[in-house]
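1st attempt posting a full record on here, be nice pls
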Amino acid sequence: WTGRIGVDYHQGLAGFENSRFYKLDLLKSVGQFADIRLQLSPRWTTFGGVRWNDTRHSDEQRAVNDVQSQTNTIGLSYQTPKGNSLGMEVKRTDVQFPHRQSLLASLQDTAYTEESANLLVDYRFSEKIRIDGSVGYIERRHPHFGFRDFAGEVWRTELVWKPVAKV
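the predicted structure (as tokens):
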């Protein structure tokens, strides 16, 4: 068994792009998380976790963009003797905008639920080079704005080069 429990905090100036809001606005984000991994055998591992985020604007005019979310994750992975791994994860995220619900009820409530299933790959070509990526399917549903719903394939890939002592 291994696991983590923690809190992270970030504070910074909110961006000006796409907002036409040019006043001081500090963006504060607090995240809380707990995750656990259970090694079932030398090759198989199961994992799961939960994460809560709360992001708030300091300026009252931007409070309508405050957001709260909860993400739940569960998965299973297999690791080869050479350190490569193949896994599957399922995620569900519920997102709320607490100050939008009070303005114009369903006309402003852009809350949504997102569910995804992903195949995870970590392939090591050598000590220095590896590919890390995922491919999957995602569905995002908005209870009040069905025209914003999305469902489709998603993927991510990353080539990682790690210099070693000889470099």
